[in-house]
């Protein structure tokens, strides 16, 4: 049961009454007559073979209000793409599967790369970007939700609560971020959000003062959640990172493009668990180590666009300030876990803090050493300007793939 407290500068929509799912879905079905709704699912082929995605599919089959589901499929061979089409054929809603590794979409990708308009590296950000381009081209949905495909505790109520704020015509929100308690199997999870993002934002406030951007990010209860919803026009101008900075990048773009009263966050689940990444103490190119570097770089980049000047000494100060605040948070979470009868390994918590502290300096060094780096994917407005017919090509390519490799 949530509280009603409004913290920060972003509206928080709580779960105060455990409203019946059937009521929510009846309202959403009524909204869908004037605001058609779609769902974007960025996934890896391997997730279709895991525990989470088959359960997600079972729940989505019961959702009555979606006009379309757009699936972005990464790391799939031709045989796996055929299997994916068979897997998703169980959906009663109209759906499209984008075979991102297929020759047709790769050809479009090469054309865009020739003008430096396409993502330079594979990953979730690239997958999401192409799904957004397809959704814009199709033009069938007014309200769109997106969530991850590795949610082990998925229930369709999560989707209903996530899309409701941008689907309800009585609300004026352009964007909604989902949040939840990262508690599962008697453990407190969410180390990167708890032990990196929140203490880093508090440290940055100490170093630079209460900047509007820092106050804005700190208002989100779970800024790294992969679940959000938005109105269609949001996708035209948004420029997102292609790395692990995706979620922070999306939040940064929203505060650049819209006033805060058009943004909100909503409680979408009491219990949430998904695939966990390794800490990767020995590699900056994998697991939570790479994630922490990418996220920290995304925050530094945004602060730089707001006029903050960085140097190597600044990053050392940020690291020292962060380290003390983060260790205090470890004690806070230990107490929170104990009163709730949950498990929390203090050694692993402090090990994560030590890794993240070092990675703050690494992220800062990378930021200073690469001043010409272009970390954001171009907006679809710019892509359409350079290649006016690209979205029609995207529609044709997806349709041709599904017709050629689908069930015969």
From TrEMBL:
<dbReference type="InterPro" id="IPR029044">
    <property type="entry name" value="Nucleotide-diphossugar_trans"/>
</dbReference>
<keyword id="KW-0808">Transferase</keyword>
<dbReference type="GO" id="GO:0016740">
    <property type="term" value="F:transferase activity"/>
</dbReference>
<protein>
    <submittedName>
        <fullName>Glycosyl transferase</fullName>
    </submittedName>
</protein>
């Amino acid at each position: 049961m949530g509280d009603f407290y409004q913290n920060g500068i972003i509206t928080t929509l709580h779960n105060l009454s455990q409203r019946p799912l059937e009521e929510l879905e009846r309202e959403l079905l009524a909204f869908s007559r004037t605001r058609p709704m779609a769902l974007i699912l960025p996934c890896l082929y391997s997730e279709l073979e895991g525990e989470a995605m088959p359960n997600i599919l079972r729940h989505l089959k019961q959702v009555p209000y979606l006009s379309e589901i757009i699936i972005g499929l990464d790391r799939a061979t031709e045989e796996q793409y055929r299997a994916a089409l068979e897997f998703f054929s169980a959906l009663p809603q109209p759906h499209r599967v984008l075979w991102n590794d297929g020759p047709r979409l790769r050809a479009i990708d090469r054309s865009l790369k020739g003008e430096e308009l396409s993502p330079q590296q594979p990953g979730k950000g690239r997958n999401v970007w192409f799904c957004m381009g397809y959704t814009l081209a199709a033009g069938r949905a007014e309200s769109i939700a997106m969530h991850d495909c590795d949610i082990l505790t998925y229930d369709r109520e999560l989707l209903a609560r996530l899309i409701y704020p941008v689907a309800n015509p009585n609300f004026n929100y352009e964007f909604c971020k989902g949040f939840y308690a990262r508690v599962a199997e008697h453990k407190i999870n969410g180390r990167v959000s708890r032990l990196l993002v929140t203490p880093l934002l508090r440290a940055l406030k100490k170093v630079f003062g209460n900047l509007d951007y820092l106050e804005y990010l700190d208002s989100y209860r779970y800024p790294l959640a992969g679940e959000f919803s938005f109105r269609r026009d949001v996708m035209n101008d948004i420029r997102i990172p292609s790395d692990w900075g995706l979620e922070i990048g999306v939040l940064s773009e929203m505060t650049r493009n819209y006033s805060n009263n058009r943004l909100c966050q909503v409680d979408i689940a009491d219990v949430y668990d998904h695939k966990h990444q390794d800490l990767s103490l020995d590699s900056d190119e994998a697991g939570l180590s790479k994630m922490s570097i990418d996220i920290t770089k995304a925050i530094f980049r945004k602060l730089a666009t707001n006029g903050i000047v960085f140097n190597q000494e600044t990053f050392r100060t940020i690291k020292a300030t962060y380290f003390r605040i983060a260790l205090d948070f470890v004690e806070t979470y230990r107490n929170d876990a104990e009163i709730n009868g949950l498990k929390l390994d203090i050694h692993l918590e402090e090990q994560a803090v030590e890794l993240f502290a070092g990675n703050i300096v690494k992220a800062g060094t990378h930021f200073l050493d690469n001043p010409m780096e272009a970390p954001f994917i171009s907006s679809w407005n710019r892509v359409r300007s350079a290649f006016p017919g690209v979205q029609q090509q995207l529609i044709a390519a997806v349709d041709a793939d599904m017709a050629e490799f689908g069930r015969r």
